[in-house]
Every structure is written in C-alpha cells, then in structure tokens.
Amino acid sequence: MFSRLRSDIQCILDRDPAARSKWEVLTLYPGLHAIQLHRLAHWFWLRDLRWLGRFISQFSRWLTGVEIHPGATIGEHVFIDHGMGVVIGETAEIGEGCTIYQGVTLGGTSLSKGAKRHPTLGRNVVIGAGAKVLGGFTVGDNAAVGSNAVVTKPVPPGATAVGIPARIIQAEDVARREEAAAKMGFSAYGITANDDPLSQAMKGLIDNASGHEHQIALLWQAIEKMSTQRKDGDCVPLDAQVKENFEADKLTQLVGK
Questions:
Q1: Do 87 and 60 form a contact (C-beta atoms < 8 A)?
Q2: Which tens digits make up the pLDDT trace of 183-208?
Q3: C-alpha torsion 63→69→75→79, nearest 10
Q4: Are strands 93-94 and 73-74 parallel, antiparallel or unpaired?
Q5: pTM over 0.90, yes/no
Q6: 15: closest CA among 86, 78, 61?
Q7: What is the pLDDT of residues 120-139, one digit of tens each?
Q8: Could you give the 3-state DSSP secondary structure of residue 216?
Q9: E-assigned strand segments in the chain
Q10: Cβ atoms 195, 169 nearer than 8 A
C-alpha cells in the first residue's frame, strides 16, 4: 500500500511543475486523496460491501470535489490534476499513466443495468479540462482529448479528439502538434491553438475567398479605367463593385485564430 502511495506521489511530481515536495503533494493534492479513497471504496465494492463503498465514495466527493463511483477501475500512476468537478462512472476503466484535468466527465449514455456504459481509457491518455467522454467505447493508448471536447465514439491510439462533437486528428497530425507544443513548453490540457481541423478548413476557405474578392475588384477597376478612355462615348455599365468589402478578419475571428 505504501509503495503504491509513493508511486502515486512521484507521478504527480513528475507531471505537475507546481508540485514542490512530496509532503505538499501528500497533504494538499485532492486528486491524490480522491485516488486513495477510491481504492478503499473499490476494495469494499468488490467484496459486496456496496453501501460502505458508496459511503466512502460520497465522503471523498465531499472532501475533494472528485466523484468516482466505487465500481470504476483505476490503474497505476493516474493523475487527477486540480480535480474539482471530475465525474467517473461505475463501469469506467482508466489505464496506467493517464492524466485527467478538472471538470472531466467519463459518463454513460445507456440506462441498461450491468452493461458497459462508461468509457475505457488506454495507457497514458490525456483528458483535457472540461472534456466529456460519453459511452462504453475505448480511447486508445497515448490518445488525447482536447479541453471541452464531447467524445461519443472511439478514439484510435495516438490520435487526438477535439471539438463538439469531437473530430479525430490522426497520429501524424498529433506528432506535428507535439513538436510545436514542445517548442512552447507542453500541451497540458491536451490541445493547442491549431488543433481544430474544422477551424483550419474554415480559415483556409476564408483566405481563398478573400483572394478571389481581391482579384475581382482589380478586374473591375481595370474595366472602369478602360471605359473612361473610350473615344466613342459609349460607357461600360459598372453595376458591379470595384472595391473590396470582404471582411476576412472578422470571419476568421468567428472561427478562431
């Protein structure tokens, strides 16, 4: 028991730059307290002492702000950072080395008793702040879920899920993101500014449309100039615009910078 506790403390020291000492982690980290109390509640749950397991779970919720059903399975070296508002359902399974930030829900979408209703997280998964992972599917090893994402389908190993509903960025894109994140520090919440593929596509379309607007304006300016130089007095009707009014910057702000 004490060796596992030391291991849990060390994993927090390794992953949280704000952690200064083992004593600080042991006494002041609610995520650690929630994990330790859950292990006790889970021990009673597996021995059919269900009420006692739920009682410890409720006490832990009151003490830490983290609600973990005693039936959930949690592996080694799991770090719940900050912790407030985290909800982990009865049939959830969390693999070794996972990191879960505040406001995360590992919830279910089925009312069937005894069914696998909650997600399974593989090894070293990162779930960003406020993310909702809903359903009895698997999030693969080394995957990441971006902050505030709503995930309702499986996430392949090494991929990243972002957005509402979540869209999947494949492993090669994740590697590029991690390379960029490494230059800035680290992407602690499982997302960076350039993760969302829909926003990237929209910004590309905006840039393309803005370029077309510029070309059209130049063409009409040339036609206007030619029409004023004609000697026969006939003028080309200019009922089309000759100035650009495409507000690319405002549209870009709507989809995110």
A1: no
A2: 545 455 555 555 566 666 666 676 67
A3: -40
A4: parallel
A5: no
A6: 78
A7: 999 999 999 999 999 999 99
A8: helix
A9: 67-68, 73-74, 79-80, 87-88, 93-94, 99-100, 105-107, 120-121, 126-127, 132-134, 138-139, 144-145, 150-151, 160-162, 167-169
A10: yes
